[in-house]
Write the structure tokens for this entry.
Amino acid sequence: MADALTLEIVTPEMMAFSGVVEEVTIPGTEGEFGVLKGHASLLSSVDIGELSFTQDQKKTRYAVNTGYAEVTASKVTVLVETAERSDLIDVERARRAKERAEEKLAKLPKEDVEFQKSRAALVRALARLNVAGKN
């Protein structure tokens, strides 16, 4: 069994976080899952939503976009398109993105390719607003 659990949150632009944590909760595409040190190895896809972890008994939250998570007994590596820490989310920008997506969705037929893109933009904006609200 591992002595510590290391978490790395990586985006194409940067290492969003790297450090030792007590636990991690990840929004998997098959449902949210938690990881503690000594966890069985697994590979999972990550969905848009809230990723949280506890470090020194303090919870930190990130709004994440889609990607993958690799879990071993001592390390969790999360590779996602975007990751924004809750206290760094621009709430007004997220609200504007939500409003734009809602306006587009109201005008588009469900069969339109743009409908799915706008729906994904809405889900991302809602996730950002939800995570920012827990700051």
